[in-house]
Each structure stands twice: as structure tokens, then as C-alpha cells.
Specification:
Layout: H1 11-30, H2 34-49, E1 62-65, E2 72-79, E3 82-87, E4 95-98, E5 102-104
Antiparallel strand pairs: 1-2, 1-5, 2-3, 3-4
Helix pairs in contact: 1-2
């Protein structure tokens, strides 16, 4: 069976995929296979991005990075489900992040 792309999955399928990836990541972490853990976590973050609407991410806005309490990111532009921009107080290099990592600042 051919694997479905995240863009072709329903919300339910995406949620199941995320749960499966997180479970595999948990097992990899328990076994000490950290590179596999990192890859699976990244895949889960990408799948989560498809549960969000890229139109909700505004160019020029600053967002807090999920799981990084004091790290903020200014979005310059969007390309698919990635936000491209710069970390505030970062190294000044542009980077692309899955939109699932962005949280609104209140």
C-alpha cells in the first residue's frame, strides 16, 4: 500500500498518524535511539502543521516557539506549511519552521 501524503489525509487520519509517530518516538527514546527519536518527533510536528491553517499565520508577526518558552520568531513569509523568518535574539540566519511550532503571543 502506498503511503498517503499528509496533504491527502483527513483530520482523523492526521491525528492517528501523529499518535503513531509519537508512540514510535517514545519507544525509540526508551531504547536510547535518539536519532530515530528526533526524526519521528520532527515527522509528528510536520503532520501537526497540516491540522493548522497557514492563513492564520501572519507575515511580519512575532510568535513564541512551542516547547521553547523564551524563544520568539518573526515570520517573513510562508511556503506551504513552513514559516520562514528569524529567531529574535538568534544568530540572524533565516530558517524555515513547521507552522505547528508557532504559538500566538498574548
Amino acid at each position: 500500500m502506498e503511503e498517503k501524503r499528509y496533504s491527502e489525509m483527513t483530520e482523523l487520519e492526521l491525528k492517528q498518524e501523529i499518535a503513531n509517530l509519537r508512540e514510535k518516538a517514545r519507544k525509540a527514546e526508551q531504547l536510547g535511539i535518539l536519532n530515530e527519536y528526533a526524526v519521528l518527533e520532527r515527522k509528528a510536528l510536520m503532520a501537526e502543521s497540516y491540522l493548522r491553517n497557514p492563513k492564520d499565520i501572519k507575515k511580519g508577526e512575532i510568535y513564541r516557539l512551542r516547547n521553547e518558552a523564551d524563544t520568539y520568531f518573526r515570520v517573513n513569509y510562508l511556503k506551504g506549511y513552513f514559516a520562514w523568518g528569524y529567531r529574535l535574539n538568534g544568530n540572524g540566519k533565516e530558517e524555515g519552521l513547521p507552522i505547528s511550532l508557532l504559538e500566538e503571543v498574548e
